[in-house]
Amino acid sequence: MTTTALPPRAGRRCHNALNPLHSTLYFSPDLDREFGALGFTDQTAMRLASRSAALGAVGPGTVAATFYNYRHELLARHLPAVWETASPAQVLDARLRTADATLRRLLGEETVASAEMAEAAELALRATEACTRHARPLYSAHADLPVPEEPHLAYWHAATLLREHRGDGHLAALLSAGLDPVEAVVSHTATGKGMSPRWVLGSRGWRRADWDAAVERLRGRGLLDAEGELTEAGTALRDALEEHTDRLDAAPYEHLGAAGVERLTELGRGFLVTAAVAGAFPPDLVGKG
């Protein structure tokens, strides 16, 4: 494995270019269509099944552990019942069909078939060669899946692997920082870069009382001020959390090398901008309000 010194936060910037394109799946009308054809009628069930299917027919405990910031009671309403509607294999097939339809709709056929897409897929897959399985359950489960042949789906698959590899490491960093599931999302939202409270409460199953209690706990630790903004200590903790995650996630980007990371980031940002302009994300998804 080749290792190359990277500029500070280069891996994080690359992740931030690739991860959102993977996430377009969860906001896509194509997901509703494909999963509706399997018999799903609840959008939360669709999205939980989509992300967890690589783990097999798991129940709420496994998903609570690997997703971290979902309320167990919400998960228990849908898991393991979703596997009576469709098997994990059927869900994974539907998810890949969704990714295909979504990328073609958002990026256009010309971009999907472009040399740049093939290049991005090759670079992203090369980065995944240095990902590690130990203590990374979501990454490891997805790494067992076959790599799709078409470049745009191979790119999406590689982005998924890199997303879950970083995500698994991020959970270890959250535990080390002493942030429970609700405190994690509240403090992330306070940075201005996380999901808005409406989206967190609507998708993760937490109640407003849970959110407010987490705010009070973070205030008690001196991490939020009276207005709910990050204090200097809170900003330092979030910065340290991301740096810890960077260290745990360094291997794939060091393996790819500085030039490869720079090029993959450039390509990924281009695809992401195109997708965003095409309406890939809800306008109120990110923010403090």
Q: How does this model look, in words?
A:
This protein is mostly helical. 69% of the residues lie in helices and 0% in strands. It contains 17 helices and no strands. Helix 2 runs antiparallel to helix 7 and helix 9 crosses helix 17. The longest helix is centred in the middle third of the chain and has 27 residues. It is globular, with a radius of gyration of 19 Å. It starts with 9 loop residues before the first helix and ends in a 12-residue tail after the last helix. The relative contact order is 0.17. The model has no long low-confidence stretch (mean pLDDT 96).
Index terms:
289 residues; mainly alpha; 17 helices; globular
Please tally the β strands and state the result. Answer: 0
Approximate strand percentage: under 5%
Q: Give the topology string: H per helix, E per strand.
A: HHHHHHHHHHHHHHHHH
Mean pLDDT comes to 96
Q: Unreliable segments (pLDDT under 50, ≥5 consecutive)?
A: none
What is the CA–CA distance across the termini? 45 Å
Quick summary:
With 289 residues, the protein is mostly helical. Helix content is 69%, strand content 0%.
Write the layout of secondary structure elements.
Elements: H1 10-23, H2 29-38, H3 43-52, H4 60-67, H5 72-78, H6 82-85, H7 88-107, H8 109-112, H9 115-128, H10 137-143, H11 151-177, H12 181-190, H13 197-204, H14 208-220, H15 232-248, H16 250-256, H17 258-277
Helix pairs in contact: 1-11, 1-17, 2-7, 4-5, 9-11, 9-16, 9-17, 10-11, 11-15, 12-14
